[in-house]
Amino acid sequence: MCVITHRFSVKMARNNSRTIATQNLQAALLPMEASSSEVKQLVEQAYQYNIFDADQLTQYLALLQQAKAYFGQQESEKERLECLLAEVFGIYMNGQQREALQQLEDCLPQVRALGDPGQLVFAKGVAGLITWTLGDLTRGMRELLEALAILEETQVTEDWLSTYYLLGNQYLDLKDLENARRCFEKGLALPEHYTNRVSVPITQARIYDGLASVCLLEVNYGQALTYLAKARHLQERCQDNYGLSRTLHDTAFIYRKKGLVAQALDYYGQSLALRRKASLKNGLVTTLTHLGEFHLELGKPDLAFPLLEEGLQWARQVGVQSKVCTLYHLLSRYYKLAGDAPRALECLEEYLALRDHMASDEVQMQLKRLSIRHELEKSEREAEIHRLRHTELKAAYDEISQINEHLKEVISYVEERNQQISAHKEEIEAQSEQLRCANEAITELNQQLEDKVRERTASLAQQNQLFKEYAELNAHKVRGPLARILGLLQLVRIELVKPEELPTILGHLEHSAQELDQVVTLMNEVLSKSR
């Protein structure tokens, strides 16, 4: 988006420079003679010195009307739409939220038709802020998440910081401290070329304020003071009295919690003075309430009473029921200490009535917050799925391209190999036939060998049986007759045989010799069979 779209939310308090910028812009626009670049430069100055009080805001909106007319005559549609979006935000700042939303919705089709992602992000951001203020929390968060999704998809370098800031603030309102801190820290971690705008120091200071608020809710006062010191440094450098008054107020609150009375009173006083000077009504009510309550705690009701009375008047004027309720409660405490029971009871009754009414609203708000958290989780999942799909599709496309190239090489190689395979096909078939014939021959030979093995096994079994018979004959049949012959011969040798017994001995020898001859004959038959 062009330079004239510096965000109107940057509330800088350079009154003299702001007036000069307004006068210069008016002088340039009224004659309708300035060039487009000159008008852009003057509008840029007006954004830098962001009109904040009611009179200057009215004048600023009138100048934007003239700027729109100028760019319309120049047929500069982009610049005309930028002025229109700036006017929408000015109307919102003027307290006309519904009118601003209606005008924004009327111009959104033109913004989409132009196709400028920066303008669309700005429109989404403004829509999120306005709808959140009007109580449509779901749409407010959805618009900001869509703005962030456009930024991530298009990678435009504008509006990242303000988008993270607005998202962080909305998460903070939902008491979702984890996501609030994440958004704030992402905003601070942006590269330099995403944060090269005049409004950046202001928004960075607001982010430090947001991180301090997170730490306050976590009761981490030390870290909160560190963030507040960084915010204050930027706010004093840019003369951002709006942000500085809040930083001083939060610092006073921490010192109050830490029991440092003098420092707390000093910072409360500085914040109150700035808010009175700039007529920051909401902030004024907050500081008056806290300071009045602090004086009650310190046992100084006389100092507390005028602060609480003034705070109640402002709270009724701005119509913030929660603050009116708190002030009635504090005033009832004051009147009780002062011994004015009727007034104390009156304030207490007002407090209880408002509290009961607000309790119902709080229940509705809690239900709405739960619904929003559900919607947020769903939106975040969808956004993450979209981002992952985009990344994965690109990676898949690159991978597919590489695979296609590889496939071409593979196909070429396969065709070459097919040709080689076809050339060797006949040779392989001939070798297969040879192998088949060889296999049949081997099968036949194996069968013959098996037959021979069976015959040989039977022959060996028969021979083994004959050898057993031979061994048995040798062990039993041969040894008997031979032993008897040897015994008889031994008797003859030692002359123990009588002459008359000699024929008998010879008969026995002959019989044993014949028996031995039969056995030897039988053994020869067995041996001949084994051959």
UniProtKB/TrEMBL annotation:
GO cellular component, as recorded: cytoplasm
GO molecular function: phosphorelay sensor kinase activity
Chief location bin: cytoplasm
Residue stretches of each TPR repeat: 161-194
Coiled-coil annotated residue ranges, if any: 376-466
Location relative to the cell: Cytoplasm
Key word Cytoplasm present: yes
Family: Belongs to the Rap family.
Protein name, UniProt field: Tetratricopeptide repeat-containing protein
